[in-house]
Amino acid sequence: MENKSLDILKQYWGYEAFRELQDDIIASVLQQRDTLALMPTGGGKSICFQVPALQMEGICIVVSPLIALMKDQVEQLRKREIEAIAIFSGMSKREVDIALDNCVYGKIKFLYLSPERLYSDLVQERIRYMKVNLFAIDEAHCISQWGYDFRPSYLQLAKLRELHPEVPFLALTATATSKVVDDIQEKLEFKAKNVFRKSFRRQNLAYMALDESDKSGRMLRMIHKLGGSGVLYVRNRRETQEVAQYLMNHGVSADYYHAGLDAQTRSWKQDNWTTNKMRVMVATNAFGMGIDKPDVRFVLHLDVPDSLEAYYQEAGRAGRDGKKAFPVLMYQQADRERLWENFQNSFPSVKFIQQVYHHLGNYYQIAYGAGKGLVFDFDLVDFTKRYQLEILPTQSALKFLERDGWISLSEAVFIPSRFKFEVDFQELYKFQVQSVKYDPLIKLILRSYGGAFDYYIPINEFELAKRLKLPRDVVVEMLTGLMKQELASYLPQTDAPQLEFLQGRVDYKNLFIDTQFIEERKEVKETQLKAVYHYLDEKYCRSIALQAYFGEQTDETCGECDLCLMRTHQESVEEKLRLEIKTLLLEQPLDLKDLVDGLTIGNDSARLKVVRELVDQEYILIEEERYFWNTTF
Fold first, then answer.
1. d(Cα 340, Cα 362) in Å, to the nearest integer?
2. Within 13 Å of residue 331, how many CA atoms lie on the same side as its CB?
3. Which candidate, 111, 117, 248, places its Cα nearest to that of 167?
């Protein structure tokens, strides 16, 4: 079985051997055992479900909250000639219906689902008729309310057990505390506990947390000194532009990235950075997920993350090539205070949550009792401006409404325009003969895209317009015309988050909000916040502190972090002081002042510290306030 796994790895991925733990996890899955895999960012988690799924008959269902990552993995699998498909928020009911049919009756090996889709009776019913060989749950920590990134939609995953009780689960995550590890297995109803852990220690990473009054100057010096490419994480969109401009003004090739940019611009910027056309990307935390760039030499945080899980994931994007890299966190007292203020604003009152729900109903003009199953593009900024709401409390209110099953809100992601012919070839040909206007467009679509009669295909209106030598607006009008004549379906592109109403609208005064859950989440977030403060105040070793947080006990220092380097320097200074003190006192006894003044290394505080230690250890003896070396040593 192991040889077959290795053959598949070589055939499709071109690797000669598995990374640490991959083959053990694959073997566990092939033995039909529920499995939880804890592997750091960049550890090769996707191989752990893709290889065994290819060995087994049937389809592997992959659940992931990251739509951009799902789309990327589907694209990568297709490039390897492996049949894969993704279903996520923003797709039409007809698109979903066709995709699910292909999974039931076609040769699809991987179905990627966003967790929100499991709320749909249509999706659940079709999964029942699929020959499923494995359920792979990516970002599995999202199922635990004790985790840093709890997603209410993940609570639907238990329904997969009801549909296929014998199919094993493979849960994957890069960040989980011991409590979250237990919670994942409980929520997914593991038949027996079964965890594979890769150490959270990254030997090549030199973690640093610096209390820095001049962040800009320190940042610039570090970038010049470290060389190579890197990522700078900042708090908001405005800062991404300001910091990128500052770097460019000082001769550093830089650009900015945030979720507010259109998909084409984000893709272009990311590609420039990935291919080293540009050195430094200044970004919000929207950047980096799923990016596997091996030669990142530094990840600098100019603001304090709100959890160690988030920091570990973001910092872990450095040094994936195994060479030395530097995750550096710079902070000031004001940053610590702002973090606490944001925490307080993240837990709005029940009254505020009810108001947000009421405004949502009015925003989309939904009548009471109506709205169930309706999906809309959602612009958070426009929504908060219209009703004069603060963004952070509103985001939190939406999460609590999602938790209680009133709405579902997906991430912002680019979905290209899609097209499908709704008539057969003969009927379409008759139309072409009768319509000179549409004939060139139809011929171009048939020549350029395969499968347009069977399923929705992604199309590019600009490309079609260019090849037809027509304005884009004319092409869009023609595509819309084909749809109006019921010859085709045409769905224009979008990159907005998708908000779905899961229940008919109720009077906000009758809206049930789970207040106990809100209090529990508040306790969890406060614990996580205090862990961040503890990390900043750590005095011994950054790597040990991170490992301890994730339940991995060790007393082996990393020797690379800022604390280890300071301690090594201090030990070196102290050792030199001991030798100098011994030399002076062997020449002649001295009083304390003359002894301290006669030393050339360190400051007075360091000199006195070493003298006291040598006295306590009886290397130095004192008689009549004169210090002399104990020659018996």
1. 33
2. 20
3. 111
Q: What confidence score (pLDDT) does residue 506 get? A: 95
Rounded CA gap, 42 and 290, in Å?
A: 9
Q: Exposed (0-12), middle (13-18) or buried (19+): which is 380, by Cβ within 10 Å?
A: middle
Measured CA to CA, the distance from residue 266 to residue 212 in angstroms comes to 31
Confidence of residue 412 (pLDDT cuts 50, 70, 90): low
For 341-413+496-513, CATH number out of 1.25.40, 1.20.1550, 1.10.3470, 1.10.10 equals 1.10.10
Region of 410 (left: φ > 0; alpha: ψ -120 to 50; beta: rest) is beta
Q: How far, in Å, CA of 421 to CA of 414, rounded?
A: 23
Mean pLDDT across 130-147: 92
What is d(CA 136, CA 35) in angstroms, rounded to the nearest whole number?
Answer: 10
Which residue bears the tokens 């989980």?
176
**27 contact partners, CB below 8 Å, separation of at least 6:** 1, 2, 5
Rounded mean pLDDT, 148-166: 88
| Residue keyed to tokens 């191989």 | 47
Amino acid at residue number 122: L
Closest CA to 167 of 134, 208, 122: 134
d(CA 21, CA 18): 8
The confidence score (pLDDT) of residue 2 equals: 58
455, burial (CB in 10 Å: exposed 0-12, middle 13-18, buried 19+): middle
Contacts of 13 (CB under 8 A, 6+ apart): 47, 80
Note the Cα 553 to chain centre separation in Å. 25
**Do the Cβ atoms of 78 and 10 come closer than 8 Å?**
no
SS in 3 state form for 385-403?
A: HHCCCCHHHHHHHHHHHHH
CA dist 583 and 209 (Å) reads: 38
Which residues, 6+ apart, have CB-to-CB distance to 78 below 8 Å?
Answer: 84
Per mean pLDDT, which range of 276-290, 315-329, 501-515 is the poorest?
A: 276-290
Q: Does domain 417-491 have CATH number 3.40.50?
A: no
Is the separation of the CB atoms in 278 and 253 below 8 Å? yes
Given a cut of 60, whether residue 1 has pLDDT beyond it is no
CA dist 457 and 371 (Å) reads 29
Distances (CA, A) of 76 to 18, 83, 110, 453, 594: 19, 10, 12, 24, 73
Identify the weakest region by mean pLDDT among 61-65, 290-294, 597-601: 290-294
> Could you name the CATH architecture of 2-197?
3-Layer(aba) Sandwich (3.40)
Measured from the Cβ of residue 574, the count of other Cβ atoms closer than 10 Å reads 16
> What is the percentage of the chain residues whose pLDDT exceeds 70?
97
User: 296-301 and 229-233 as β-strands: parallel, antiparallel, unpaired?
Assistant: parallel
Tokens of 533: 């403060």
pTM summary value: 0.76
Residue 294 CA to residue 296 CA, distance in Å, equals 6
Spell 523-540 as b/e; 16+ CB within 10 A means b: ebbeebbebbeebbebee
Q: What is the mean pLDDT of residues 524-547?
A: 95
- End-to-end CA distance of the chain: give it in Å, rounded: 65
Please tell me the predicted confidence (pLDDT) of residue 508. Answer: 87
Q: How many contiguous H segments (helices) and E segments (strands) does the chain have? A: 25, 21
| DSSP 3-state of 437 | coil
The architecture (CATH level 2) of 562-629 comes to Orthogonal Bundle (1.10)
Arithmetic mean of pLDDT over the chain: 90
- Give the CATH number of domain 208-331+526-549: 3.40.50.300
One-letter amino acid at 437 equals K
